[in-house]
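Researcher: Quick one. two chains, 1148 residues in total.
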Amino acid sequence: MKKRKLTFNSIALGNLKHRKKRYVLMILGIVLSMVFSSSIIYFAFSAYTTSQEQTKADKGLYDIMCSDYEERVFGNMQQSDSFETIGMGYVVGFAFTDSEDRLSGTSVAKLDKISKELVNPILLSGAYPEKKGEIAIEQTTLLQLGITAKPGDKITLKFQTQNDDELMPEVKEKTYVLSGILRDKRSNIAISFDDKANIPSAFVSEYEQVDLGGKENIICYAQVTDKGYNEVWGLFSDEPELSSSIVFTYNEGLALNVDESLSFVYILVVAVILLLASSMGIINAFTTNLKERKKQIGLYRAVGATKKQIVTLFLREAILLGVVCVPVSLLISYFGVRVIVNNIFDEAFFEPNIWVLLVCGAFSLLCVVLASLIPIFAASRVTPMQAIRNIETARKLKNKKICPQKQFTVHKLLAKRDLTISKRKQVFVSIFLVITIVASSYIMSVFTYSIGDIYKEDYDYCLSLSSWTGGYAVNYPSSNNGFTENHKQTVLLNENIRSAYGYKNAKINMLVSDFDSLSNYKFIAGLEYSKVPETSELSDINEDNYRSLIKYDRPPEYTDIKNAAEYKGEFLDTEIIALDDEFIEELNRYVYDGKIDINKLNSGEQVIVYAPKEMYLVRRTNEYGSSLNTYDNKENIQYAVDRGEQVEIIASEKSDYEAGQKLDLSLIYAETNNTNFDVNGEPLVTKEDVDVTNKQVEIGAVIDFMDETAIPKYSDWGIVTTVQGMEHFSPRAKYKEIYFDLKAECTEETDEEVKAILKSVADCVDDGHYQSNYEIQIEQKETIKNSILLVCSIMILFYTISGSIINNTLSSNIKEDKRKIGTLRAVGANKKEITLSYILQLFSMFKWGFGIGFGLFGISYLILSLMPMPDIKALMSNMVFNPWVTLAFGVVLFAVCSLSVSLKIRKEMKNSIVENIREL
Amino acid sequence: MNIIECKNLTKEYLSGENTVVALNDVSLEFEKGEFCAITGPSGSGKSTFLHVLSSLENATAGEVIYNGESLKKYNDNQLSILRRRRFGFVFQAYNLVEELTGYENILLPVMLDKKKPDEEYLKKIINILGIEERLSHLPSALSGGQQQRIAIARALANKPSILFADEPTGNLDGKSGREVLSLLKYVSKELGVTLILVTHDLHVAEQADRVIRIEDGSVVSDSKNAEV
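Model:
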């Protein structure tokens, strides 16, 4: 006979072989727990990394870029705690191809090592410039320059050499070798023409020198620390010219140490909760057969095995289980997340965080090993004989006070006593239910908010500009960019379009004799540029002295403009908006003085003034300090209060605009020479360049319109007229946005047809683009569908593991109670009585789990809602109290567990009574 | 008058690929109030016979007739009701419900039947069995003899017609065994209960009115027939 050597491994393997079914169930439990936690954690961390990588690819790693940079400020910045990493760039000139369209050009810069890391140029093709005469340009810039070239080709650019913060007037032609095409960054960062001119999107090698006669303009790329942007503004507050040249990428969080980032902390908290839940699942899988294992340990001990040998045996078994479970779980998690990711994200940006998956695997393995020791610790408390003999119940009941019953309902008494015996199991299950309920209630609360946050536009289609701006108080050709009446009519020709309406706007100035003579209302409304003299403190300002302590602080070009337009007094800059008739009709409900007369508006005789009924001068104090602000309604003031800010209304003034009043308006148009651009792309204004239209008009109506209209307004007050009326002020102004409505419900075919027309129109206009509400709705529906899928998967996973823990606990109870079931059957108990005794135990676990879980959720939600901290307030504003879905899931879980109990009892009762009561 | 009888009872088990015949075509009748001992060597099928006769196990073939009615047509629920009302069981390993006290164990069949306990009757049984002092104890705090007395009281609590006892003295020492046996004999006579007892102990069997010997699943002798 072949002799087999008895080793720990062979015993451990033998255990696995002989209890195949039990171990398969155990492995399933462990795998389920591991997949549950590791896939969610892996997904969350990968999504976090992905979003960071995507931001880095889209915008770079820096938070601010400032041009007009001086060595002196550089010293200040390095000493400041507000900056973490600072890199230097050097602008050597401005490159363009079309003299009539300078804004399609770009600053050309060379970067030092740090700034290159911060800018993070990503090559789509070719290489980054390494030699003099090479250039790499961003893809969109290349298109805007009208250059079709591939890396290695020679390209010729019109070039103005940099001279400190200005450009030399001479335009020369320069030929570069296009070394590489870069992924777009400037178009993702720039929100204004200023930004566009400031941010270099073409780079040359470090060997490139500025042309003779010029001087490089130093630019600085920096990461802002978690101390925030307020300090950055503080640092530049004494450098107004610098402040106007700062570009923010709004990459908040990227520059911070990863462990300081709030979203990272959230993910970490969720990860810990999930790992705890998963470890409970694993421990549960091991303790399911605790009684049997304790008996087995007792037997080993009785025949002379030492504790160390038993520990070794169980560890081997656990490691064997771990070796099976961990790779399987990690593979399922990896591929599971991939499937979800493919449905949700653009896979190209997905950055899998394999390390997180490996950490989860290691943690799970540790859990398996530790959980395997539980029966040993449990068995170590009893002697080998006690472990073999079934005196568990006696031992557990020994210290419990039992009140003998004279009469009782059998299933109730049995459930009560069983719960007394298995108190620990009950507490374990209840704790897990509490975690499940609290976690899923919060998940559902966030989810309910996110699906309730669906927006629907009032229009079906829209033509708009991706960026546009005008200079201060002056209209330039660039600010007149937009869509024409012809464009509108082209779209209207399509049979599907019912109507079109849009708006034009232009800068306009209201002439006043001097600022001191302004009414209090007009003074507050015009406070956009204001300054509190250094001798005064913000806290000194009150209702009586604000007129004397706050001074208008006009921008540097104010005097230039005043002189160029030959104004005798002062002016307040605002805008004039021209609306199509559909919009004008909407305004009737906001009129609080006078009436809208379209004919008089069309003739230019009258205008509408939009001005809030009341203006408020407010002092806000938050963690960053105090500031003065103007508000046009109390809701916005309340919003600041809700965010936890201290808000004091210094003054409130009622509107003094009345119908019939005369206004002196002046519109300046500057047909500037392209060479007169300063480095920011801001044209310089001289008397010779400007074309001024002065006009006295009557106020036909005064309106107070709020944000509920689709009509945009960019300042607290302004002028409104009809499109026809605009001809009397700024005939050159074009439509900034045009909205289109369909005749009938949109279909996919209609959408494709209309989008094709809109695209052809948008392509004719600089920065023109179109939007389809139908497409937005489809995208949103798709996002919601995916979110529901994701949340449902998480909820189902959560509840499956809860169900598995409860099921395991009750299964082990039923298995352990086999003999009791037989005895009860022998004395006449039927299936109903026996099943009810277990369902009552289940009910008790749920009662405690639900009670504490929902209580905890409700109380914590209430406490968090009442907390004044801005971060918490912001967090809570993204939630809608929703315990109902969790409750429904819980009820389903209870029903499923009850059914499972019933089936298990039924299975047990398929055996004869004798089989039930026979000693194992 | 027969209270219970069986006709052609056969019970087969599957052991691996082999079929083991535990009972082979057994037909017997039991009269009301009779004390019958079933004896035989280990593995002879005597316990199996008791289990099948008392509906704890189903027969492979044949039928059990209680009070003239075949139990074949009884469903699980009806059999449960029959067991709680008409049958009492005493097992070798006592089979008390561990988390219930002695008194609660005794009350089990009565409570399962949702009846008000007949306290006078229960008091009488408890007195006869001498367990007044142990009623509030959990089974784990009782000796084997005491546990078996509780088990007997439980078996008698619902005034059954038949008391089935499977090696009731098997786990007890000689003295306790003798006491339990005489109590069983006493209460069955006192209460007019039919006592069908399985034992391999001939001294126990000697005290029965009737002794049936089973070997290899078949009845090899029946003292009643011998008398006849």
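Chain B has a mean pLDDT of 88.
Researcher: Thanks, that's what I needed.
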